[in-house]
Design goal:
The protein is of the alpha/beta class. The protein contains 13 helices and 18 strands. The chain folds into 2 domains: 288 residues, Alpha-Beta Barrel (TIM Barrel); 116 residues, no CATH class. Strands 3-11-10-8-7-6-5-4 form an 8-stranded parallel sheet. The radius of gyration is 23 Å and the shape is globular. The N and C termini lie close together (9 Å). The model has no long low-confidence stretch (mean pLDDT 95).
């Protein structure tokens, strides 16, 4: 048993253990409430959460409007209804124990409107709002309006400094802590900057020290740093617990909490995660958000990575011309043999990219890409795949066929979709499911059993 003492988080003494938010519909009211009932901090995702009809069935998120802006309004209504439903379930499931947090992707479409819509209805049920994937400058004012604690997710002291100096310093009463997310190890979208090498991880401890030093300067020494990304066994982090240089410390478990009896993921997820080997989770820049993200390598991810290699530069003059929408496009003549080989393999359709290249896909892929782009529901504030921008209506750039509709695939995988042809976000320690004796012989723990195991250090 490790020396794990309770801490004040979102106004209550709880175990310093937090279930990381996983959208769409992977972190829901049941999983959130179960963590809270165990005396820890549960989290439900407000990213297009499920709502239910009068019979308790999930309401399919089907879009009927013809105009993209009208579909956006449909999405907002679905999202607010889903967040309210999950908050109520979490409250009931928790039995009044622990804490209930809500996670939101700051760069999701209409994020502020959705958070406010949920808190207006069930603000008393939600003790904290956690936001990452972007710079949530308005989070502090928004959460404080409802007397709700807020938790920014950052990957560097520099990011937190910018947030605090510009906004958070005005609303310190409800700043609950800072989530430090290791961008090289955490699952889903992360805060890796353009100045950092995705292939060369920085020193995790030194980055945490820098954040604590900054927090102390801002008189926030009493607030926890919540370590996220790469956390599996607490016995491996014992040196952090009573470390005066960085304490108080709490820990967030994102990937490990996927496999519990309360989690709604399909059983196919369990088999996929249990079969992973080290290195099977890939950090890529494929997401339509423009952020780096980490996901399980499967057929979908493999196809997208291969698609990046099937592109050729457009040039002003060339002896090599490719037909694109009935007109000739001059492309790099040195790639003639490559293009010929791609076409022989069935990748006969050329699609223009915003980077001045042509990418080659199959006719079926081209048809699906165009269909998905036309069906955009504005789930992101800015989307490379559809060129949507909520502030201007459009990014002004060509839609990028090298990425994908994230709303479509995450909705599919959350509701029983094929694990090979849909995106599965996961942290880089996911391979440990297959190595950890706790999961031997296909054992699936309850959340309570998992929390007890974590407290024991393993």
């Amino acid at each position: 048993m490790i020396n794990l003492r309770s801490q004040t988080i979102s106004g209550s003494e709880v175990l310093p253990l937090i279930d990381g938010g996983k959208g769409i519909s992977i972190s829901n009211g049941e999983t959130c409430g179960a963590w809270a009932a165990a005396g820890a901090v549960g989290t439900f995702s407000a990213v297009n959460a499920d709502s239910y009809d009068e019979n308790g069935n999930v309401v399919p998120q089907i879009y009927h409007a013809k105009l993209r802006t009208e579909r956006r309004n449909e999405l907002i209504r679905y999202a607010i209804a889903g967040g309210i439903a999950q908050a109520k379930i979490a409250r009931e499931r928790s039995g009044g124990k622990g804490r209930i947090h809500m996670n939101a992707l700051w760069e999701m479409g209409a994020c502020e409107e959705i958070i406010e819509g949920i808190l207006q209805e069930v603000g008393g049920y939600v003790h904290g709002v956690v936001c990452g994937a972007g710079m949530p400058y308005n989070l502090a004012e928004l959460a404080s309006k409802f007397s709700t604690y807020y938790y920014p997710i950052v990957s560097s002291a520099r990011a937190f400094s910018a947030l605090f100096r510009r906004s958070f310093k005005k609303y310190t009463e409800f700043l609950g802590g800072v989530v430090y997310e290791d961008p090289w190890l955490a699952g889903g979208h992360n805060g890796l900057s353009n100045a950092e090498n995705p292939l060369t991880p920085a020193n995790n401890y030194l980055r945490i020290v820098a954040i604590r030093k900054l927090m102390n300067e801002f008189n926030l020494q009493h607030l926890p740093i919540i370590i996220a990304g790469g956390v599996w066994w607490l016995s491996e982090w014992e040196d952090y617990l009573d470390n005066k240089e960085i304490m108080p410390i709490a820990f967030q478990f994102g990937t490990r909490s996927i496999i519990t009896t309360e989690n709604p993921v399909a059983k196919a997820w369990h088999s996929k995660l249990m079969s992973l080997k080290k290195g099977d989770v890939k950090l890529t820049s494929l997401s339509p958000t423009g952020f780096y993200s980490s996901a399980v390598y499967n057929k979908m991810l493999g196809d997208l990575l291969e698609r990046q290699n099937r592109q050729v530069a457009i040039v002003e003059e060339s002896s090599f011309i490719i037909n694109f929408l009935g007109r000739g496009i001059n492309v790099d003549p040195s790639r003639r043999d490559d293009v010929k080989a791609w076409m022989q393999e069935g990748f006969t359709e050329a699609m223009i990219t915003p980077d001045g290249t042509l990418v080659f896909v199959t006719p079926e892929q081209a048809k699906q890409i165009v269909s998905d782009q036309k069906s955009c529901v504005c789930c992101l504030s800015v989307c490379r795949f559809s060129s949507w921008c909520q502030h201007r209506g459009s990014t002004g750039k060509i839609p990028d066929p090298r990425t994908f509709c994230i709303q479509k695939t995450l909705q599919a995988i959350a509701h029983g979709g094929d694990v090979e042809n849909n995106l599965i976000f996961a942290g880089h320690e996911a391979y440990r499911f297959g190595e950890d004796p706790f999961y031997a012989n296909g054992f699936i723990p309850t959340t309570s059993q998992l929390v007890d195991r974590i407290i024991a250090g393993y």
